UniProtKB/TrEMBL annotation:
Pfam families: ABC_membrane (PF00664), ABC_tran (PF00005). It comes from Lapidilactobacillus concavus DSM 17758. This is ABC transporter ATPase permease. Residues 281-489 form the ABC transporter domain. It is found in: Cell membrane. It comes from the Bacteria. GO terms for cellular component: plasma membrane. InterPro entries: AAA+_ATPase, ABC1_TM_dom, ABC1_TM_sf, ABC_transporter-like_ATP-bd, ABC_transporter-like_CS, P-loop_NTPase, Type_1_exporter. Residues 14-252 form the ABC transmembrane type-1 domain. Its main location: membrane. One of its GO terms (molecular function) is ATPase-coupled lipid transmembrane transporter activity.
């Protein structure tokens, strides 16, 4: 009989252990899945908000800052936020079960537990501001490190040419040391919070010990309850320690969310999201200087670009040619004077609305690390017939015929596997596929040979409905003759 009881007990223990192991594994899987869902929700939210960010606001940071938001900051939210939240859930269960057990011994324990719990929970609030500042420094330093790494590797070609590749390691190591310093300081602050919580917990457990001794003295509980009460009370206060500490780390990551919301809030404030059919651009007394500069790049400039007109903008370097195009496309807004399209003042128009009508191709077109098709369509639904027509117009048809993968050919980031002329023509084809009413071209054919450049320029000029404004430093006489005007800055 005793043997049977032992076997039943052993089997019960095995079953309970298996249930524990399975539940622990399932809990880990569920937590991991929930973290991924929440991470993606944050990334989706940031990406959605970025769709309405202004050009100037976006460029107030370099792109590595946003990379850090979607990687380093989310990792910090995971480790100090989501993980702490899930641990708190387990802590709450431990606290409730242990407190209920103590209450069965004597309800007077609940008073001590409530007072102790409040002390433990609110102890970290004394460190709230310093914890948040530390969390902000960690996020900022991680962002700076990402920026240094990206910048160093982007500059590989220049450093290679100067026999200075050692600079890459120097810059990365120096920045990594700064990351280490900030993280160590953050750990010290976290350790200080944990020490404060543990000291309060020790005081509370001593209070439970004293209370139990008093209850034994009063013959309300027996001596055996003395040790069991201390053990159970430890479960309560250990749970409270974890709850308090993890809650403080969760509060520490809140500034990251605040940073996201403040920076990527909808800043438009512009009412008009539709434009008139008249594409005449009228400029009066346009004056502009860059935020950190004092010299006017443009000063009292007045001109009217007629709808469907073809224009060249010329002038020495630094006279404001590219600045003018950036203003016309809505990228730069801090100007004086008036800029109107179809009689509507630019300041009343949502800048993103301008991009539906105006396409600006700058001097250094970006090529995505994706297929040729994507680099042309940018995700738009465009038929192969339309693609082939535009590729023919931009003198890319013969090049495409030589690609074994055709439109599915993979291009590298920045177009490192393309010539300068190919990059320019891909960017031009990409712009024309959007059927722009106004095309702004900044040295858009500078990398092409004269024959090909002339063919493409004439193709653009013969698009009667489209307004063409092109910047050039080498205006050929045969091109000048076909233009409506040449604007000298």
């Amino acid at each position: 009989m005793d043997l049977n009881a032992f076997i039943r007990f052993g089997l019960t223990e095995v079953v309970l252990m298996l249930i524990y192991f399975v539940s622990s594994g399932a809990n880990s899987i569920v937590q991991s899945g929930l973290k991924q869902v929440m991470d993606n929700e944050i990334r989706n939210d940031i990406s959605a908000k970025m769709e309405s960010i202004s050009f100037e606001k976006f460029h107030s940071n370099n792109s590595s800052v946003y990379t850090s938001w979607l990687t380093n900051d989310i990792n910090q939210i995971n480790s100090s936020g989501f993980s702490a939240f899930f641990t708190n859930m387990s802590s709450v269960v431990m606290i409730v079960v242990s407190a209920a057990t103590l209450a069965t011994v004597s309800y007077t324990y609940l008073v001590t537990l409530i007072i102790g719990g409040l002390l433990i929970y609110f102890a970290p609030f004394f460190f709230k501001k310093i914890q948040q500042r530390s969390s902000e420094r960690v996020a900022s330093t991680n962002s700076e490190f990402t920026s240094v790494v990206n910048d160093s590797f982007e500059g590989f070609n220049s450093l290679y040419s100067l026999n200075a590749l050692h600079i890459i390691g120097q810059r990365i190591i120096a920045s990594a040391q700064n990351v280490k310093k900030v993280n160590v300081r953050n750990s010290i602050i976290g350790g200080s919070v944990n020490l404060a919580i543990n000291l309060v917990s020790l005081f509370c457990q001593l209070a439970i010990l004293g209370q139990t001794g008093w209850l034994v003295y009063q013959h309300q509980v027996n001596v055996g309850a003395l040790f069991s009460s201390i053990t159970v009370a430890s479960g309560v206060f250990n749970g409270l320690i974890m709850l308090s500490y993890n809650s403080s780390t969760i509060r520490g990551v809140l500034p990251i969310f605040t940073k996201f919301d403040q920076f990527i809030s909808n800043q438009s404030g512009h009412e008009l999201t539709t434009l008139p059919s008249d594409n005449t651009v009228k400029i009066e007394n346009l004056t502009y200087h860059y935020p950190n500069g004092t010299e006017h790049i443009l000063n009292q400039f007045t001109y009217t670009f007629q709808s469907g007109g073809k224009y060249a903008v010329i002038g020495e370097s630094g006279r404001g040619k590219s600045t003018l195009l950036n203003i016309l496309t809505g990228r730069l807004t801090g100007y004086e004077g008036s800029v109107m399209i179809g009689g509507i003042e630019y300041r009343t128009i949502d800048p993103l609305t301008l991009t539906k009508k105006i396409v600006y191709l700058d001097q250094d077109p970006y090529i995505f690390d994706d297929t040729l098709r994507f680099n042309l369509t940018i995700g738009r639904e465009i038929s192969d017939e339309m693609l082939m027509e535009v590729l023919k117009e931009t003198q890319l048809e013969s090049w495409l015929a030589g690609l074994s993968e055709g439109l599915n050919t993979k291009l590298t980031q920045h177009g490192d596997n393309l010539s300068g002329g190919q990059r320019q023509r891909i960017a031009l084809a990409r712009g024309l596929l959007g059927h722009p009413a106004i095309l702004l071209l900044d040295e858009g054919t500078s990398a092409l040979n004269p024959v090909m450049a002339n063919a493409i320029e004439q193709m653009l000029i013969h698009r009667k409905e489209m307004t063409l404004i092109m910047i050039t430093h080498h205006l050929r006489p045969e091109l000048a003759e076909t233009l409506d005007d040449v604007v000298a800055l």
